[in-house]
Amino acid sequence: MRAFLRPEEVAVRLGMSPWTVYDLARRGVLPAVRIGRSVRIRPAVLEDFLAERESCARSPLPSGRRAG
């Protein structure tokens, strides 16, 4: 596996637009690094990001709140 992924590669893995990946990286939601004008994401950081999001999705809602 390569040391870094391009946003286009991350987008394919996540099933979303590359522009969404760029936006997530720009806003700091998805940890990324800039190398010159390029944006790159480490595969391990992507896996951590997804694991964190999965754990948030599984956690129960605070009392008094309901989904939908």
Walk me through this protein's architecture.
It is a single chain. By secondary structure, this protein is mainly alpha-helical. It has one domain (7-58). It is 49% helix and 9% strand. The protein has 3 helices and 2 strands; from the N terminus they run ααββα. It has helices spanning 7-14, 18-26, 43-58, and strands spanning 33-35, 38-40. It has a two-stranded antiparallel sheet with strand order 1-2. The longest helix has 16 residues, at 43-58.
Radius of gyration: 14 Å
Number of helices: 3
Helix amount = 40-55%
Element order: H for helix, E for strand? HHEEH
Which stretches are poorly predicted, pLDDT < 50 over at least 5 residues? none
Strand order of the largest sheet: 1-2
Main beta sheet strand tally, sense and closure: 2 strands, antiparallel
Number of domains: 1
What is the total tally of β strands? 2
Structure summarized in a few sentences:
This protein is mainly α. It has helices at 7-14, 18-26, 43-58; strands spanning 33-35, 38-40.
Task: Reconstruct the topology from this structure.
Elements: H1 7-14, H2 18-26, E1 33-35, E2 38-40, H3 43-58
Helix pairs in contact: 1-2
